């Protein structure tokens, strides 16, 4: 796990930083905290020290800290420096190389990945000076986790609320990941269950949540890729990934074929409907005695992608019997580089669950993997695909 330095400046969102530090420690990271003097007006350093089991640094002239040595040694061992919350004042300082306290001095001395999580009043955030400072930070290679819209502590409603902790943790996961074998590669992932309209009110769909596809997309992002998800899922857009929302199999087909032109790797994790209503009623269908729907086949996107490949292609096989035989048939027929075979009857392989148990099949053979989280499996699928 990583050595993470958390810089804390004086804003009311500081109470969320306490939860963040606690979460990072539970994830196994080694965390040290540096506070600005203003931050200590909101929370005492003891709060962070009790959690991290390290001294919390505040002032460069702190009696028990040998400043000249300490800020450099902290900077040297950090894998990642995140400022959360970052006030307009601290952003202005780091954008311009000011170093007048322990936080800004150490920040300047660090050459690791740096993340800034702004939190402030909307007017201060939208002020052209703050925006120019943030642009400058980006130019210098720092990563910004944009604040959210909402009700601010000052009573105003607008942009400036600290991003939610899940998003901040995703950014930390992304920038603290050490292996980046997919650097400069473009990965396209499909996810979720498509919806096929019957009338303006009703549709046909399936139980897919989109979790597996999103886990693969996040793993590809962490491994350095430029990632796009074509999504029929209701899940929130993950940090650091482009998401194109679609609904039907036809919309997914059109978007995937368009995006495939610039892809190096494509993973079709979506549960695409095989059939759709032949006619979509323009008005809501009124109930009657009996009702039947005429269905027609949708196009097989994966098969189309396999016809003329300039990318690596991975598909899924969802089976309830003869797992390996059926999956292998799809592997050959759809001209794939890898197929991930799921037995839907196996424990831990549910649509909505956070775990999966799969068998990977490629030209090198068959490998049954143990039960694992979908996030972990995301990395394993991509590693196998890259090695293949
Ligand atoms: N797939 C697709 N387009 C479709 C149907 C499926 O691209 N119209 C893709 C899925 O995303 C998955 C793979 O094909 O990667 C296999 O999907 P699956 O539902 O297991 O199999 P099908 O090919 O639809 O065959 P069957 O339903 O007969 O098992």
What does this entry look like structurally?
By secondary structure, this protein is α/β, with parallel strands linked by helices. The chain has 2 domains: 3-176, Rossmann fold (3-Layer(aba) Sandwich), CATH 3.40.50; 186-387, CoaB-like (Rossmann fold, 3-Layer(aba) Sandwich). It is 34% helix and 24% strand. Helix 12 links the parallel strand 16 (312-319) and strand 17. Helix 9 packs across helix 13. The longest helix is centred in the last third of the chain and has 14 residues, at 374-387. The two termini are 27 Å apart. Bound molecules: cytidine-5'-triphosphate. Residues 249, 268, 270, 272, 274, 298, 300-302, 315-318, 330 line the site of cytidine-5'-triphosphate. Cytidine-5'-triphosphate binds next to helix 11 and strand 16.
